Task: structure prediction
Amino acid sequence: MRRRSGAMARWYRRWELQQESFNPQREARFSAMLDVAAAVLPRRFVALDLGCGPGALSARLLRRFPGARAVAVDYDPVVLRVGRGALGSCGGRLTWVDARLGTPGWDRALPPGRYDAALSTTALHWLGRPALARLYGDLARRLRRGAVFLNGDRLPWADDEPALTRLAERVRRVRFPGKRRSAAWGAWHAWWAAAERDPELGPLFAERERRQSQHPRTGDLPLTFHLRALRRAGFASAAVVWRDLENVVLYARR
Result:
């Protein structure tokens, strides 16, 4: 088991700061997700953290629920190294998994058994339609009956709601005028540029680039696609339980 690293803890704290510069509602969204989990899950449960990055969601979940365990899944070797080094195993309660979400057989990398919950934040918008539909089907198999799925992300309105899309963009410009938007992007780029110069993280960037070439960026899929795909996969219900314009928490029950 990899021991905790002070250097990786510093990278983790810098990650938190640059992420907060993008989404001023980040903690509100985290809180909404965990409040729902508290309302519907037992005292002891096992949750998947999908597209975990360095583990921000898992860390909050394990602090909030002392009887919980989490399995954190990502495909980026840099953020996985940061998370493993900064958070470790949280006393055996946190397991890290290197797997590419939405590819055939990705869930074979998970510890065996079924799960009580799956959560994700600011991650699944990277997946295209076939990969996301496959992921939801795989989750339907790996989640227990009655388990919950929570996804906090930017999920735009459908293409037939152009007025709402334009409204959301205008509000974003009010909240993030040019200088602030540039500063947020600057913090993001600065984190990655500095990480690449780090002696421990730098050697991982070649593998990161190779993996990213397998995972081309797609346009954000509308909320309606997520709702339909979850129901087709076998989830009994799917709905938005928290919203700030296109920044939503999607809830589904297995």
